[in-house]
Amino acid sequence: MRQPLVAGNWKMNGSSDSIRKLVDGILSGLETKAEVLVFPPSVYVQQVRDLLKGSAVKFGVQNASDKLSGAYTGEISPLMAKDLGCEYVLIGHSERRSLYGETDADVAAKFCALVDQGLVPVLCVGETLSEREAGDTMKVVAHQINTVLRAAGPERLANYVIAYEPVWAIGTGLTATPEQAQEVHAEIRALLAENDPSMADRTRVLYGGSMKADNAAELMSQPDVDGGLIGGASLVAADFKVICHAAGQ
Ligand code: PEP
């Protein structure tokens, strides 16, 4: 049995004041069997860690370097994420890929660096609209995943999460239908099973892309959808909690 996971990606939003209110709102009355995780902007991670103390909600950073220290201005070391108490780190988000030029190989290097520090990567994958329309969804997603699997090797694949995020659905209000999501999630699991069936069984595959309070339950009722990676709706405590409750049903 895979425990559902709901992760909120706050992106570059918030202030210390709004983040305090958001965390208070999330913690108030949160009851779910799902694991709940938030990715605040890195400068607020310490504040969020303190606010979450004593709760079951976890936190992580939205990106990390594949390097551990040195002259890499503006980067966040996996060691720093670990030092702050992060358990999870988001990597390969489509905004990092499209706006900052991160390649599949860059993402794979980050994956390895994180696992080597005992952190759990949440690896984002997904196709653009033109790739989907060309029938290349699984070709793109398989390349993104296989690059990581090859670089990591079997010993680094004990614990990680995949987030399938069709790029055309992120922040657009367009959501994959539950059937479209299930189809890709099942293919991702089959791909993982080619490497190691038990890894495929235990690895959580989240859906992300305009998951909201009113469509989360249906998306997460699909057998291979193990939770969600939530952008916009994770900034509204009440909506995020509805999604967490739906995941823990
Ligand atoms: C995301 O950015 O990971 C995301 C899923 O965003 P949204 O929920 O806003 O589409």
Describe what this molecule looks like in 3D.
This protein has 249 residues and is an alpha/beta fold. It contains eleven helices and eight strands. The protein has helices at 16-27, 45-52, 78-83, 94-100, 104-116, 129-133, 137-152, 178-195, 197-202, 216-220, 237-247; strands at residues 5-9, 35-39, 58-61, 88-91, 120-125, 161-164, 204-208, 227-230. An eight-stranded parallel beta barrel has the order 1-2-3-4-5-6-7-8, surrounded by five helices. The mean pLDDT is 97. Phosphoenolpyruvate is lined by residues 9, 165, 170-171, 208-211, 229-233.
Summarize the structure.
The chain has 249 residues and is of the alpha/beta class. It has helices spanning 16-27, 45-52, 78-83, 94-100, 104-116, 129-133, 137-152, 178-195, 197-202, 216-220, 237-247, and strands at 5-9, 35-39, 58-61, 88-91, 120-125, 161-164, 204-208, 227-230. It starts with a strand and ends with a helix.
Write the layout of secondary structure elements.
Layout: E1 5-9, H1 16-27, E2 35-39, H2 45-52, E3 58-61, H3 78-83, E4 88-91, H4 94-100, H5 104-116, E5 120-125, H6 129-133, H7 137-152, E6 161-164, H8 178-195, H9 197-202, E7 204-208, H10 216-220, E8 227-230, H11 237-247
Parallel strand pairs: 1-2, 1-8, 2-3, 3-4, 4-5, 5-6, 6-7, 7-8
Helix pairs in contact: 1-2, 1-11, 5-7, 7-8
Phosphoenolpyruvate binds next to strand 8.
